Amino acid sequence: MGRRFLRQIGELTLTLLTTIAAFAVTIGILITFHELGHYLVARLCGVKILRFSLGFGKPLFIYKRKNDPDATEWAVSALPLGGYVRMLDARDPACLPIKPEDKNREFGAKNVWQRFAIVAAGPFANLLLAVLLYASISVSYTHLRAHETVLDL
Asked: What global pTM score does this model have?
């Protein structure tokens, strides 16, 4: 009974670790798509991006592209429960003073519709991801069902 119990505990632990890993990967994909939505629309609207971070808190890893004129920091931070896109904003004391050439690239300098589009882009990216995943599952399932029907003939 002792070995059987230990084997069951081992299987339960492996199942728990697999579930936690699957959850972490899923949340990571959702966060990445969400933040990329904000990032891409902000860039399209001409807002200067200071940092794109997956996670909150102290950055564990920071990367800066060499030829990026904005010097955007790409970061992975310690607390992986979200992320953020830090934009040039006059309301952020860390951004002050804003250089004259960057005044029109500040988030608050954009019109209401551009700011709305930037804010809404994250949830829209998640919606788009869900539609694409469900569509791919539907197409795969339909293809499999069609293949089974042909084999049944």
From this structure: 0.82
Task: Report yes or no: 117 and 39 within 8 Å, Cβ to Cβ.
Answer: no
Choose the most confident range, by mean pLDDT, from 1-5, 56-60, 138-142.
Answer: 56-60
- Sequence-distant (6+) residues with CB within 8 A of 53 are 35, 59, 73, 74, 75, 76, 77, 83, 84, 85, 86
Beta-carbon contacts of 31 under 8 Å, excluding residues fewer than 6 positions away, are: 54, 80, 82, 83
Does the N-terminal peptide bond of residue 97 adopt cis geometry, omega within 30 degrees of 0? yes
Q: In the annotation, is 35 catalytic?
A: yes
> Which of 11, 35, 73, 101 is an active site residue?
35
C-alpha distances out from residue 129 to 7, 28, 69, 134, 137, Å? 39, 13, 30, 9, 12
Q: What is the pLDDT of residues 97-148, one digit of tens each?
A: 999 999 999 999 999 999 999 999 999 999 999 999 999 888 887 766 666 6
